Amino acid sequence: MDKVYIEGLTIQTTIGFYQWEKEIKQKLVIDLQMGWHTAAAAENDELAKTLDYAQISQEIETFANSNPVDLIETLAERIAEYLMISHSIPWLKLKIGKPGAVFNAATVGVEIERGSRS
Ligand SMILES: Nc1nc2c(c(=O)[nH]1)N=C([C@H](O)[C@@H](O)CO)CN2
Fold first, then answer.
1. What whole-number distance in Å separates Cα of residue 5 and Cα of residue 8?
2. If both were cysteines, with which of 4, 17, 94, 116 could 70 make a disulfide (CB 3.0 to 4.6 Å apart)?
3. For the domain with range 2-115, which CATH number is right: 3.30.1130.10, 3.90.980.10, 3.30.420.10, 3.40.50.880?
4. What is the pLDDT of residues 1-17, one digit of tens each?
């Protein structure tokens, strides 16, 4: 299967386990790979037949800001579920980094893979 991807999507959102984190916005960096058969869109040069990475980037930011949670694990799971259902995506790999979370690490985060590639 082919993929449509988004790399390094940077959003500012409320996320974190501790009380002080619920009162601020922090940076998350998101990488997303989505399984898709891209040939159908290429055949007649049609955006409607593929996954619109611009629209999906906006949806991720809106989703994160509308659904504040403690853990990036929870956010990853919920974004994955939302995208797979709303766009009929059969497989995706989603990585969320929280670069400001550990002062002496470049970044920390989670990566999940959901669905089937076949
Ligand atoms: N595996 C995780 N570990 C931690 C998370 C998380 O979301 N997943 N979150 C925190 C705090 O919110 C942290 O980012 C701030 O100190 C700690 N560990």
1. 10
2. 17
3. 3.30.1130.10
4. 999 999 999 999 999 99
In this structure, the residues whose C-beta lies within 6 A of any atom of ligand 1 are 16-18, 21, 71-73, 98, 101
**pTM, full prediction:** 0.97
Of 13, 15, 17, 28, the residue with max ligand 1 atoms within 8 A of its CB, to mutate for a pocket test, comes to 17
The closest-lying atom of ligand 1 relative to the alpha carbon of residue 71 is 7
Q: Tell me the two tokens of residue 20.
A: 């002080």
The residues, ordered by sequence, that sit 6+ positions from 37 with a Cβ below 8 Å of its Cβ are 1, 2
